[in-house]
Amino acid sequence: MNVSISLLLFVLIFSKLSTEDVISLPNEECDIRPMLINTDALNYKYYPLVVSLYRCSGVCKKEKPSFRKCVSAVSTDIQLHVFNELLERNETLALKNHTSCQCQCAYNSSACTKYQKWDAEKCKCVCDRSQQRKCDDGFVWNPNLCACECITECESKKYLNRSTCTCACKSRFYERCNRNEKLLQESDCSCYLPKSYSQKENCGMLPMKWIIVAIMICFFCLLVLFFDCLIYSRKSGCLRQTINYFQKNKTSLAEIKPINR
Q1: Omega before 48 cis (within 30°)?
Q2: Which residue, among 113, 120, 110, 165, has the nearest Cα to 140 in the 3D structure?
Q3: Distance between CA 237 and CA 229 in Å, rounded?
Q4: Is 141 within 8 Å of 135 (Cβ atoms)?
Q5: How many whole angstroms separate alpha carbon 224 and alpha carbon 218?
Q6: CB of 151 within 8 A of CB of 139?
Q7: CA dihedral 133, 137, 142, 145 (to 10 degrees)
Q8: Are the C-beta atoms of residues 155 and 167 closer than 8 Å to each other?
Q9: Distance CA 154, CA 238 (A)
C-alpha cells in the first residue's frame, strides 16, 4: 500500500515538473528577418566571414511549405567592403538584401500530367474532368492521380503488375522450379512435371546432366585409347604390354607336352 502511494506521488510530481518545462511558440509567418549569411561559403576567403542581412522566411498562413513558399518580392543590392585574405587586398562584394516578401507556389504547371491542370489558388495539379476516361476491367478512375488505377490485391506469393493489373508469381518461384527441372503452375506458383515428361513415360530416359557425364567418360576413354595406340606404335604402352603378355602365355602353353599314361 505504501509503495503504491509513493509511486503515485512520484508520478504526480514528475508530471508537474515536466509540464512546467513545456512552452508554446507561435507559428512564424512569412516575413523578412535578419539572417547570418556567409560572404564566401566555399573558401571563406573574405573578411568578414559572416554578415547579417535580411531574408524572407516563414510559412504562408497554415499552408505547408511543400505547396507554398515564402520568397522575396523586393530586394536591394548592397555593396559590401570585404578583405580578400588570399590576395591580401580590399574588394567590394555584391549581396542581396530582401526588403519585402510574398508567398509563391512551390511548383508550377510543369508538374502536371496531360490529364491534370494547374490550380494557382491551391498551388497544385488538379484533375481535369474533361480528360476523365473509361477505365479497363480491373481499373478504377483515381481523381487524385487523374489516371486509371489498378485495385487488384495479390496473395503473398505474387506481385501486382500495374500495367496489366494482373497478379504474377514472384521470381523466386520461377527459380525454384528451374532448379528442379520443372514448370511453374501460375495459379498457385507451384512446380509440376508435364505429362509428356512424366517418369512413367520416360523411365528409360536419363536426365541431361547424366547424358553429358556419359559423353565425357566416353570421350575420355577414346582419348586414352588414342594415346595408347600412339604409344603402341613405339612398342610401349598398356596395349602393347597386354598383347605381349598373351603372346608369352600362348607360347608357354604350346611348349607344355601332354603326359602319356
Answers
A1: yes
A2: 165
A3: 8
A4: yes
A5: 10
A6: yes
A7: -80
A8: yes
A9: 68
Determine contact, residues 128/116, Cβ cutoff 8 Å: yes
Helices (DSSP H) in the chain: which residue ranges? 2-21, 171-179, 208-232, 238-255
Rounded distance between C-alpha atoms, residue 183 and residue 218, angstroms: 32
Where does residue 58 fall: left (phi above 0), alpha (psi -120 to 50 degrees), or beta otherwise? left
Q: What whole-number distance in Å separates Cα of residue 139 and Cα of residue 134?
A: 9
Among the residue ranges 142-151, 199-208, 225-234, the one predicted with the least confidence is: 199-208
147-193 pLDDT, tens digit per residue, is: 788 888 888 889 888 888 889 999 899 899 988 888 888 888 999 88
At 137, list the grid cell.
476491367
- One-letter amino acid identity for 78? I
For 8, phi then psi, to 5°, come to -65, -40
What is the per-residue pLDDT across 48-83, written as a single tens digit (0 to 9) for each? Answer: 999 999 999 999 988 888 889 999 999 999 999 999
Q: Which set of grid coordinates corresponds to residue 82?
A: 570585404
- CA dist 209 → 77, 177, 181, 193, 212 (Å): 80, 17, 11, 17, 5
- In order, the DSSP letters of 16-71 are HHHHHH-------BSEEEEEEEES-TTT--EESSEEEEEEEESBSTT--TTTEEEE
